[in-house]
C-alpha cells in the first residue's frame, strides 16, 4: 500500500511454522528467514522540474523508515531517464525480520542541487500507484536462503561426528595391531554412545521455545549449487601413454544449479538470469542461452612427454589444464 511518499509491504508470507520430526507434531512458531539480499525497486519517470532547473542530471534518493533512525538505503538516480531504480535495503530488512513484525514501512525523498548550489526537492519522481501501468508498482524483492530446522542441523552434525569418530578409531586400532572383529565391536559400542547423546540433544531441542533462533542460527546445507568437484583422470585410460609424468591429474568438473541472485557472476550472466526470471527467453526472436555452471578460473601444469623416437623426453607447460573455480555464466 502507499500513502504519499510512503510505502508499506506485508511480511505475512515470510512467517512459517516449524515441524518437529521427532514427535510428528506441528508446533507453530516464527522461523527467522535467512535474508541473503533485499532491494526496493521503484519505477522512475523523468522529474517534473521548472525550466531553469532542468540542467540538473542527478538526484540523491534517500529511503527511510519509522522503524529505523536515519537512512535505510541510498542511491543516486538520473532525473532524465525512465527506468527502474534499485535501492539496497538488505541490512534493514534483515534486522526487521528478526522480530515478529508483519510489515515494513518505507518513506523516501529525492533531493538535488542546481548549478548555484541551491537544494532542490524533486517531486513526482516515482510511480507509486501503478495507475499508468500496473507492472510499474513498487516492489520489495527479498532473496532468502533455505532455512534448515535446528533439529535437523544437530542430527546432521551428530551423524558427521559419529562417522569421523569411527574412522579415527579404526585408523588408531589398525596402527595398534587390532584385528577386524575388535574394530567392529568397538565401532558399534561407540556408535551407540553417540546415538544416545544425539537423542538427548534432540529432546532438549524439542522443548526449546521460539527463541531457538538466538541459540542456533539457521544453517544452509546445500550440495546442489554450482561448485567444483574432483575428477581424477589417468592419462593411460584415455590412451595418452606418451605422457610420462604425471601419470594423471585432477582437471576438475563444474556441476550444480545456478540460482538467483548470482552475486559472484558477471553482469552478462546476471542480465540473462533476469531475462529468464521475467519470462523473456528470447530477444528479437533469438533464444537467450541459459545460465549454466562452467569453469571460471584455470591453472597450468607441466607434462613430461616421450617423443615418437622413444628415447627423447621433453617437458612443456600446458595452459588452462585444471579448473580451479566454477561459476554461473
UniProtKB/TrEMBL annotation:
The keyword Secreted applies. Its main location: secreted. It is found in: Secreted. Residues 186-329 form the TGF-beta family profile domain. Pfam families: TGF_beta. GO terms for molecular function: cytokine activity; growth factor activity. SUPFAM superfamilies: Cystine-knot cytokines. SMART domains: TGFB. GO terms for cellular component: extracellular space. It comes from the Eukaryota. Keywords: Disulfide bond, Growth factor, Secreted. Transmembrane segments: none annotated. Belongs to the TGF-beta family. This is Transforming growth factor beta B SciTgfBB. It comes from Sycon ciliatum. The lineage of its organism: Eukaryota, Metazoa, Porifera, Calcarea, Calcaronea. The gene is TgfBB.
